[in-house]
User: Fold LysE family translocator from Dyella tabacisoli.
Amino acid sequence: MTHYAHLWLFFAVVFGVIALPGLDMAFVLGSALSGGRRKGMAAVGGIVAGGVCHVTMTALGIGMLLKLIPGVFNAVLLAGALYIAWIGLSLLRSTSGFDASVSPVVRPQRATFWQGMFTALLNPKAYLFMLAIFPQFLRPAYGALWVQALVLWGIIAITQFVVYGGIALTADAVRAWLKQRPSSNMLATRWVGILLIAAALFTGVEGWRGI
Assistant:
């Protein structure tokens, strides 16, 4: 396999993983629906930045340490799932729908960025990917490993930006439509809350089984 074919294969795998619903996608969706496009893109930026930490941790072997100490990995897994579940519960308890002035999940863009990064760092799917898949695409025959890791991270970052950015823009358009229809707004708020809680439960259960 040529190096370019190797990279295309990695992109295909990454796209499949990122396109699957999970904590990161749920956070971007909730941020964009509650705070609009800017908040959604701030969430995307934080998640992309979290990817830098994942690659760095893998290079330093910290990811393997988490795998070898189940208690630490379980704590990270549950913290991420509980955080997204809290956002979902907040939406279920909201009495105003996706209203930026009162929504409990709205926060300044800078804070949203850091929360997105925090969510990415608590995402068990990311750790499982970095432990099981990422190292398989580092080949000494293709040059310095740190350069390869940088290129692979670039592929991850671009894919995250395209997929999650598309979700943020779509959610912002839906938010504008819902604001004109109060009854639909509240119904959508409840459904998104349920979806976030379901995503948290699914991620937590599946991630725990994957340990």
Observations:
- The chain has one domain: 22-206.
